[in-house]
Request: fold
Amino acid sequence: MSHNPTTVADLANFTVLIDVRSPAEYALDHLPGAINCPVLSDEERRIVGTIYVQDSAFEARKIGGAMVARNIAHHLDEQFRDKPRDWRPLVYCWRGGMRSVSFVNWLRLVGWDAQQLKGGYKAWRAHVIEQIALRAPKLDLRVLCGPTGSAKTRVLQALAALGEQVLDLEDLAAHRGSVLGGMPGRPQPSQKGFETQLAQQLAGLDLSRRVWIEAESRRIGRITVPEPLLQRLRASPIVEIAATAEARLAYLLRDYAWLGDDPQGLADKLGTLRELLPKDVLAQWQAWALAGALPPLFESLMAQHYDPLYARSQGHHLERLDGAQSLACDDLSDAGIETLAARIAALP
Reply:
């Protein structure tokens, strides 16, 4: 069996990636495809850490060692009993320390060619940051912009179906970037989790071909767009969807119809705008929300909030907005979006 230092560049050489950190650490972010086999549970990790601080490192290792041994035995018995001799796992913890060393030693004693990731998750995290910084400035981006309700996300999806390269940041962030932007049933990832997904997306893009992306502000919900990508986006050519107000309203009513299922939740979301709006406007919006009156609510939101915000933010952040190619559109139905995407894909 080999026992050489293993780096991020060697990931493809292994049968499985095993993350031995606690479930909470794993949930925040992990190497793509890794399975979680914690050697310490969240509570056990808390106990060992407390003993380390309040008593001594020796006592912490003694008590923690017993916990680790029991947990490794459980994983061997429950998850790995059927693995063949040529099964080749790569194991990592936070920084390539005792948790992954312990797991690797047991796997190697069994007879598997288990290896430890040099530097652990911290090495992976450094790789993610490096890859975003290296690849983002090389992207041949084409930026879709247009006021809220212009169906930019759906147009991106239609472009992808036509074979165009797309980078859908809102999908990665699980948020549509506005006060009503939370996606039902999809909590936002951690910042690190978002960046891991982003790095994976960038790695799969052909840098010699254009990439369509939606104009975004610095933050998408609670996620921050990494600076190298944000700078590239803001300096890239623009295609503006100039949809009619009627088409946009019809699209919003269709795409956000689910908000009507929770009137109180919608009113509460609108309440986060209280510092930006006159009290009487907010009161009217919340009354419409509670009554399930989405058409007048969305029409007023467009006119009094989204459109003025778009005019301010796009002009300030998109350096090439004055030279944007503008495509007029009066139909944002499913068929209309497909037609619009085909027009955009045909642009030189």
